[in-house]
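Whether sequence alone determines local backbone shape is best considered at the level of individual chains. Part of our work consisted of pairing the sequence of a single chain with a tokenised description of its backbone. This step matters because it turns folding into a mapping between discrete strings. For completeness, the protein is quoted in full, as a sequence line and a line of structure tokens:

_____
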Amino acid sequence: MKRRISLIALMLGIALVVATMMSHQNVQQSTLDELHKRINNSDSFIVQIGLENCPACDQLVEKEAQGQWFTQSSPVIVTIRESQKDAVREQLKQLIPSFLYYPSIFYFENGEVKSEFDLSTLDGVEKRYLEWLESIQ
């Protein structure tokens, strides 16, 4: 019985990952080094910084997977390993002085932070994100 429950949980987890990947076709997975290069190259882009095993990050990803609103902006996703979060936080603070918590979403224009999306609540996140996109364009 326990094996069946474990197997069902595993299958549901895999299904969620596949569904998330399919709904994020315009999303670019990236690394901290690649983020640093984009900033140094004075690129313009949206980046979402998340953390492994972060409940708020997981909730945001679930909400993003439920609709196409997030992928319209072709964001760059950087997911930090939980084991590296303290060391990486210092690096992120150097790159993005306003970085405070996971998850965070920033808009860079010519390699500089021009706007930060408010993730203090996930209530109405889809509508607020679309309004934010309009405000940065």
The first helix runs from residue 2 to 23. Confidence is low (pLDDT under 50) at residues 9-25. The two ends are 54 Å apart (CA to CA). Residues 80 and 88 are 8 Å apart (CA to CA).
